[in-house]
Amino acid sequence: MRFTLPRDLYHGEGALEALKTFTGKKAMVCVGGGSMKRFGFLDKVISYLKEAGMEVELFEGIEPDPSVETVMRGAEAMLKFEPDWIVAIGGGSPIDAAKAMWIKYEYPECTFEDMCKVFGIPPLRRKAHFCAISSTSGTATEVTAFSIITDYQKGIKYPIADFEITPDVAIVDPALAETMPKKLVAHTGMDAITHAIEAYVSTANCDYTDPLALHAIEMIQADLVDSYNGDMAKRHSMHNAQCLAGMAFSNALLGIVHSMAHKTGAAFADHGAHIIHGAANAMYLPKVIAFNAKDETAKKRYGVIADYMNLGGKDDDEKVALLIAYLRKMNDDLNIPHCIKNYGADSYPTENGFVPEEVFLERLPEIAKNAIGDACTGSNPRIPSQEEMEKLLKCCYYDTEVDF
Ligand SMILES: NC(=O)c1ccc[n+]([C@@H]2O[C@H](COP(=O)([O-])OP(=O)(O)OC[C@H]3O[C@@H](n4cnc5c(N)ncnc54)[C@H](O)[C@@H]3O)[C@@H](O)[C@H]2O)c1
Ligand SMILES: [Zn+2]
Questions:
Q1: Which one has a higher pLDDT value, 384 or 65?
Q2: Cβ neighbours of residue 315 under 8 Å, at least 6 residues apart?
């Protein structure tokens, strides 16, 4: 088994200044639509890299849930500029896009299809090293071996997975997380707890990943709702907690909550919205726990999580029920709906969500098939059949009980 993390991780307030100590000639800074510029972080990154003696070029405007086309454009810009450092700053979207650009930059003949072969990326770092600076507290992509790219023609999110794309340097500076709007805190925070819980019950869990997952869960339980309500000390703590969860899942892998989130996220984009990654996870996690708990080993492990969270319960069945109830309460506290039917185009709970019932039912078989085929399904403690996945997704649509 292999356990891989970035070579260096700088954390705590002021960690961004580590950029001043980098050695290299040319840095390509990859960034999203404007929040990092607006809050002054991008200027800091540029001036620190210049202080380190590097020539800097920007690749700006990477959209949320980045597309294959954006990846290809970024790689072209890299091939022109020839950086020896790729520095990605922002949420999961710009960092993930930059990771995929990095592959294409090092191997221009590599197609998107090639990239999606799980653990099939050839050796990188022939041309450039990679530094990731996260501004959201959820994906932990700054420490993970994953990148999620959306194929908008198919309406599907594809995970690229290989330790080759684990960044060389991660910068986890809590100052960047302070400017997150509440909704982003909620969604990314629930993404993080899903990472930790899925990693802990994953069939690829091990002694190295378990303590990271459990500690992350305890921290998120203590910090997330307060961070959402504006407590900045807790906001800082969440930035570390999500990163610990990332260290766990990058090595222990995930499960079908993520498979389902990947395959539903963009599936109804033609009806006006995405189901935001973290919100999808928040809605599906309690359902998947009920489904997975039919597996004895998984049930025991959920029991351990419940114990760490001090939820009570006299046996594992009770503990699983209390864990599910606790997570649902978190959704309520964070203004996240419980099911797709009640998911509004603005992501808030509403009577009639943006995904019409008949459209959901019509697309269900295809979505279920795609979810089973997702790279995250293989490490789930219970492998669902097509029929079970369809039933599970229906429970996620209607918020009905999982009893199979
Ligand atoms: N690579 C992985 O391991 C992994 C894991 C989970 C999810 N993902 C993927 O990551 C993407 C989601 O990333 P995300 O949740 O970090 O959001 P994001 O990067 O998509 O950003 C969402 C929005 O928040 C804004 N924003 C980011 N940081 C901000 C800040 N500090 N202050 C104010 N605004 C800010 C951005 O400009 C953007 O408009 C999805 O595509 C998801 O599938 C990747
Ligand atoms: Zn996630």
A1: 384
A2: 303
